[in-house]
Amino acid sequence: MLRLFATPGGLVVEDAGRFLAPAKLTLDDVFRSASPTAEVRAALNGARVLTSLPDPLAPIQSQEVWAAGVTYLRSKSARMAESKDAGGGSFYDRVYDAERPEIFFKATPHRVAGPGGLVRIRADGKWNVPEPELTLAINTGGEIFGFTIGNDMSSRDIEGENPLYLPQAKVYDRSAALGPCLVIADSPPGGETAIQLCIRRDGAEVFRGETSVGRIKRPLASLAEWLYRENSFPNGAYLMTGTGIVPPDDFTLRSGDEIRIRIEPVGELVNRVA
Which of 237, 248, 259, 270 has the fewest CB atoms within 10 Å of its CB? Predict the structure, then answer.
């Protein structure tokens, strides 16, 4: 297993507890490679050894970020409840059980916040939540080669008003966060892997929730296959895999809130709301 950190000075690779700075390696190189692990290990020959890790950025260069929805039973129930007045609740019930998953575009690199960065809530949204998600790294050939933590910021009231408003509820500046690193591994994390969310406000915890990777209904490889079906990604892509943690209906984010998402072995992604 390797952990890749994007930093202001270039990529840093954590391997067996050492931080190594290869002379020539970019995230685009990794995502374009048919053998990402071999690509990284070859670049480590002659790499500088660092005594500490510089502050990391979002682990993204030219990749698009997409997302899968309604992959957890909890997510299906929440979406049906928020859309009941608009008559769209049954859409989510049907897609949860359908062969074809819900997959939607989420962000381009400039819309993505990194570790310690600011995420945003829409000024015209009144019911805003974070959605903590295991996020798959998929190379140009459509193969999953790693994963990171993703935060799919969402305006629940906008999506609930009409399902056709989903792009406005999901896609806007700083509507996504990734990090703190990209883990390259032979397989995604096992079903027992915990996904944890903590939200703090004025120094006090106001929400905490936990789910696991094993509660995702669809096979992760199937989600990747559907994303790449009739679609091409010259620089690879990230795919958020849905959320199973939904704050209560009376909760909405406020400016200044701190969002902490933990998935091992990625670590913890921390962001504040602008």
Answer: 248
